[in-house]
């Protein structure tokens, strides 16, 4: 298996997990309905939201390494990685994120930081719910850009 085929396989596997995460979040919101979300639901939702961002980051890291661009080496490397994929890009990386998408994805990065360094007890359900409702369009646009990149590299349609 070539490095390009391996990259495609790993990225598609990651995107499948991201789609499952989005689906689980929507199911969780339906389950909560109009009731106040319990701490357990908020904790589950915060983990799923953090997982979504982790998926974005994993894909960007794989592409950066495939393109032999390395990874950012700073205290702000998570944010720097997003910047690397904006126009103008770093080290010939593809411009996968436009300004709007960069801002949207960064909100999930910042939420992940809060979720990992705070308590689920303190999470505000209504703010989380807004992020969950915006997740699907953000994911679909990100997925489309990544699939376009993979198809352009391979010269073939993925599905």
**Count of individual helical segments:** 5
Number of domains as seen in the coordinates: 1
Supply Rg: 16 Å
Q: How much of the polypeptide forms β-strand, as a percent range?
A: under 5%
In the CATH hierarchy, what is the architecture at level 2?
A: Up-down Bundle
Largest sheet: none
Distance between the termini: 19 Å
Q: How much is the average pLDDT?
A: 96
What is the gist of this entry?
The chain has 159 residues and is mostly helical. The chain has helices at residues 3-32, 39-66, 77-84, 99-117, 125-154.
Summarize the structure in words.
By secondary structure, this protein is mainly α. The protein has a single domain, classed as Four Helix Bundle (Hemerythrin (Met), subunit A). The chain contains five helices and no strands. It is globular, with a radius of gyration of 16 Å. The mean pLDDT is 96.
């Amino acid at each position: 298996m070539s490095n390009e085929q391996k990259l495609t396989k790993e990225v598609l596997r990651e995107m499948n997990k991201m789609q499952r995460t989005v689906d689980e979040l929507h199911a969780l919101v339906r389950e909560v309905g109009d009731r106040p979300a319990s701490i357990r639901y908020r904790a589950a939702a915060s983990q799923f939201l953090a997982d979504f961002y982790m998926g974005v980051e994993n894909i960007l890291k794989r592409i950066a390494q495939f393109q032999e661009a390395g990874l950012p080496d700073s205290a702000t490397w998570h944010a720097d990685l997003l910047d690397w994929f904006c126009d103008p890009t770093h080290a010939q990386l593809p411009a996968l994120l436009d300004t709007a998408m960069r801002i949207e994805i960064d909100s999930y990065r910042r939420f992940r930081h809060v979720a990992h360094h705070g308590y689920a007890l303190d999470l505000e359900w209504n703010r989380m719910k807004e992020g969950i409702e915006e997740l699907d369009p953000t994911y679909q646009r990100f997925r489309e850009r990544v699939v376009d990149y993979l198809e352009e590299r391979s010269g073939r349609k993925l599905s």
